[in-house]
Specification:
The protein is of the alpha+beta class. It is 23% helix and 13% strand.
């Protein structure tokens, strides 16, 4: 089994990436539309944002294990609840995110 390193968002280059993805997606989950009640005006990407009982996360549309990368085209904002459901679907072998084609709807 191949193990891939986890993105460490405490590092500066990934903080900027997280902030850019959140801003592009308007700090909103791309699946269910959940959005935080408050977004700090000086948010720098150093920490996650909470949406009621879940957090906003950065998700790889095409998982890295299947050749996905850290490009803006392959990343989206998703809440922890939706990300958990996506992971369960992937474990069952039903690739709901379209792994057999290029990610769509992301510019």
């Amino acid at each position: 089994m191949t193990y891939l390193p986890v993105i460490d968002f405490r590092r500066k280059k990934y903080q900027a990436l997280r902030k850019a993805v959140y801003e592009r997606d308007n700090y909103t989950c791309c699946v269910c539309g959940a959005r935080p009640d408050y977004i700090p005006c000086d948010y720098d990407g150093r920490y996650t944002l909470w949406v009621r009982d879940r957090v906003l996360e950065i998700d790889h549309i095409r998982p890295r294990i299947f050749g996905g990368d850290h490009s803006m085209k392959n990343l989206r904002t998703i809440c922890s609840s939706c990300n958990s459901r996506k992971a369960q679907t992937e474990r069952k072998g039903r690739w709901g995110c379209g792994l057999d084609r290029e990610p769509s709807g992301i510019s």
